Amino acid sequence: MQEAIPLNWRKYPERYRLEGTHCEECGQDFYPKKNICPNCRRKGKLEDKQMPREGKIISYSKVKASHKDFKDETPYYVALIELKNGVTIFSQVVDSLDNEVEIGAEVEKVFRKLNDKKYGVIAYSHKFRVKK
Amino acid sequence: MTGISAYGTSIPLRRIKVEEIAKQWGDNPENIKNGLRVKEKTVRNHDEDSATLAVEASREAIKTNQINAKQIEAVYVGSESPPYAVKPTAGIVAEAVGATPNLTGADLEFACKAGTAGIQAAIGMIKSNEIDKALVIGTDTSQSSPNNALEYSAGCGAGALVLDKQGEIAEIKKTTSYTTDTPDFWRKAHKEFPDHGGRFTGKPAYFKHVINSTKNLLEQTGKDKEEFDYFIFHQPNGKFPLKAAKKLEIPKEKVEPGLVTPKIGNTYSAATFLGLSNVLDRAKPGQEILLTSYGSGAGSDSFWIKMKQQPENKLEKKKPEKTLEDKINRKKYVDYGTYASYMNKLKEVY
Ligand SMILES: [Zn+2]
Questions:
Q1: pLDDT, tens digit, for every residue of B152-211?
Q2: A33 Cα–ligand 1 center, Å
Q3: How confident is the model at residue A15 (pLDDT cuts 50, 70, 90)?
Q4: Are B330 and A132 an interchain contact pair (Cβ–Cβ within 8 Å)?
Q5: Which residues of A are less than 8 Å from B342 in CB distance?
Q6: Where are the alpha helices (DSSP H) in B103-156?
Q7: Contact call for residues B44 and B53 (beta carbons, < 8 A)
Q8: DSSP tag of B167
Q9: Which of A85, A107, A132 is nearest to B321 (CA)?
Q10: How far is CA B311 from the centre of its chain?
């Protein structure tokens, strides 16, 4: 599942630094980035902003059957995470013991490989782990 | 002056015990544990590499002391296990911490001392007023051939230092080196696993360089070794640093706080950074540290580091929330099969 090099590259700010957008007009944060503020429409003033790197799990699932590219890491956890600014994000939860992954668990962002094939560039991105 | 204004570390959660590796190859684990003074080692996860560990260590350093990443004007990464043969890890780190684009960066190579070569490069840039702030990292996820002595110790980890003129944590007062051409350890291009010169790795390699570089520092500074509170030596295993200390007539109590290899394995380029971090985690204002790295091939760099005079509570606030010891104590054991798969060992076995 090798994605196009430009697609991966364009996502560096979002994937590497969890960069989203902030609307100066209504004060709301968005991730992924928005081109137009859904609240203020044309009046909105959007600027790039790094999202908080901490949040909590609001829902999760343990993936036991996955695409063959993720065979080595199966089973793994995916979770819906509410960041400290209220923005929700869907991400993988790594480096956490089974009894630690639960609703309400505090998580922090880590920098990990998303995929790495023999040919092509390595895609790095955010994942989360339970804060310990 | 030049000094350390922030530091951070990153080690994988996973560990493998010496017993588990010994079981595969019919070795006696007690002999190995006593011989190397290593109990277990860190194992990277399938989604970790020397770049991800470098980013994590750097972020911890930057976050702890609220460094403005845009002020970082140089990123130097020392490693012998970069994710790409050609494509700098320095760029990945700079992008991930938000230091791009107005900075210089480079990946450095000198076996396990590439990271300390990076410290020296940064000191040069800062002292010559070319830059104000540098991020220097030692990181490795080192390979070892299955059923090779190295397999018991080759571990994974990263340490990062933010260096600048202020030196909020400690001042680096002097650096010296000792370098020769010594065939103790090498990996040819396109080879997956390294080779080593067996007995050649000890006396003419590690000890000769570590001891001479350390002596160079003492001679050039006129310092007495009694004046140092901590000594950190490169640590390919748990034994060599203590043996070097004995030869230099340094009490082992001054070496042990900077000795983390027995619990996490040899983290190569990260080893001296992690040893230093473990010392910084407990060092008090005014204390003095002598650090000597070692890179096969071979060379050593030594540093005289002095903790900044300041109220102790002020210093503590500049240290990461989690100590390296906290991270060492949090772990998950894996079996040999999982380890072999995570470390990609199966692709070149024939
Ligand atoms: Zn708005």
A1: 999 999 999 999 999 999 999 999 999 999 888 788 777 777 777 766 677 889 999 999
A2: 13
A3: very high
A4: yes
A5: 72
A6: 114-127
A7: yes
A8: -
A9: A132
A10: 28
Tokens (6 digits) for B18 = 């010496």
Query: What is the CATH number that goes with domain B1-344?
Result: 3.40.47.10
- For B265, residues 6+ apart whose C-beta sits below 8 A from its C-beta are B38, B40, B41, B42, B153, B154, B155, B156
Q: Which of B83, B96, B330 sits opposite A111 (nearest CB)?
A: B96
What is the per-residue pLDDT across B268-296, written as a single tens digit (0 to 9) for each?
A: 999 999 999 999 999 999 999 999 999 99
Contact B47 A12 (CB under 8 A): no
Residue pair A31/A20 in contact by the 8 Å Cβ criterion: yes
Q: Which residue in B20, B112, B196, B209 is the catalytic one? A: B112
**H-helix or E-strand spanning residue B61:** helix B50-64
* Residue A93 tokens, joined: 């939860």
Q: Model pTM greater than 0.90?
A: yes
Protein fold of A52-132: OB fold (Dihydrolipoamide Acetyltransferase, E2P) (2.40.50)
Q: What is the predicted ipTM?
A: 0.92
**Tokens 């520092």, residue located:** B217
The structure tokens listed for B72 are 């970082």
Contact A113/B47, CB-based, under 8 Å? Answer: yes
Q: Are B78 and B116 in contact (CB under 8 A)?
A: yes
> Which element (helix H / strand E) includes B25?
helix B18-25
Kindly give the residue spans of alpha helices, DSSP state H, lying in B142-259: 208-221, 240-247
CA distance B229 to B237: 22
The whole-angstrom separation of Cα B146 and Cα B345 is 7
CA distance B159 to B157: 7
Give the 3-state secondary structure of A53-67: CEEEEEEEEEECCCC
> How far is residue B154's CA from residue B81's CA, in Å, rounded to a whole number?
12
Interchain CB contacts (distance < 8 Å): A and B = 52
Counted residue by residue, chain A has a size of 132
